[in-house]
Specification:
261 residues; alpha/beta; Rossmann fold; seven-stranded parallel beta sheet; binds NADP nicotinamide-adenine-dinucleotide phosphate
Length: 261
């Protein structure tokens, strides 16, 4: 199936590794030009080189998206370097391990800024560019901890649930302008950042990190974790021409982790 992404321009946040990298790579494989943002320059440059190998324009912009200035710089820089933005993927996020007792106000500020407010600010600053885009799409990356209780995942649950609400509201506000806004909820995905996350969840549950990994795999219907590419492929569809009548929707890519009907 031709997704109709060839020649489009996408800005992807948190794209030097993990799920963001996989989403940007899936888009580049479809012929979509990509702008990638992250803080660390070395990994970002490598990711850009990987995307360029697909024959598209790929640019990396070093930006700290935990503040408005960084988000504005990435939105404007991506538009300038690619010649516009048709697709925004709000992927950036991370987990700060901890419990209600152990997490400090600083921890909360950091995690909410990166996991929730970065999507809000990026959307705000990318919108003027998206409004001039071709079949504009916004895809927000949330996570199954935003739809189902995942003990030990306090600092991702709260922003993930917020992202789902944000997507719905924005879908309502931007529908008349023909901009679709959807939400993808990955299940537990084998990315570099999972080492510390599993350790943190293990502490809360009083088990080992390996126990946590095995328990999560056992909770899925497929009996395994996701590979980042499996999230990237669905994301590419959701921002494509083929998903033209989908908006305000939350799509779980979780191997059957969530069990509600
Ligand atoms: N992995 C999972 O199991 C899972 C499950 C559900 C949902 N998710 C969600 O999927 C998204 C990606 O997760 P992941 O596991 O792929 O994360 P990851 O491996 O930790 O990658 C995070 C990416 O974001 C960048 N980044 C982090 N903080 C940043 C900041 N302040 N400004 C700019 N860039 C920043 C990182 O590069 P630098 O450090 O160089 O900046 C990196 O490129 C997150 O929103 C996460 O909540 C993940």
């Amino acid at each position: 199936m031709d997704l109709g992404l060839k020649g489009k321009n996408a800005a992807v946040t948190g794209a030097s590794q993990g799920i963001g990298y996989a989403i940007a790579n899936a888009l580049a494989q479809e012929g979509c030009n990509v702008a990638l943002a992250a803080r660390g320059e070395e990994r970002l440059n490598q990711a850009v080189a990987d995307m360029q190998a697909h024959g598209v324009t790929a640019v990396g912009i070093v930006a700290d998206l935990s503040n408005e200035d960084g988000c504005k710089a990435f939105a404007d820089g991506a538009a300038e370097q690619l010649g516009g933005i048709d697709i925004l993927v709000n992927n950036v996020g991370g987990m700060i391990p901890g419990t209600l007792d152990s997490l400090s106000p600083d921890d909360w500020e950091r995690v909410l800024n990166v996991n929730l407010m970065a999507a809000v600010s990026m959307t705000k600053y990318a919108l003027p560019h998206l409004k001039q885009g071709r079949s504009p799409r916004i895809l927000n990356v949330s996570g199954v901890s935003g739809t189902q209780l995942l003990p030990g995942a306090l600092t991702t649950t709260i922003p993930n649930a917020g992202i789902i609400g944000f997507s719905k509201v924005m879908a309502g506000e931007l529908g008349p302008a023909g901009i679709t806004v959807n939400n993808i909820c990955p299940g537990l995905t084998s990315t570099e950042s999972w080492g510390p996350r599993a350790e943190a969840m293990a502490k809360v549950r009083g088990v080992t990190a390996d126990d946590v990994r095995a328990a999560i795999a056992g909770q899925t219907l497929l009996g395994r974790w996701a590979e980042p590419e499996e999230i990237g492929n669905v994301a590419a569809f959701l921002v494509s021409e083929k998903a033209s009548y989908m908006t305000g929707t939350t799509v779980e890519v979780c191997g059957g982790f969530t069990r509600y009907i």
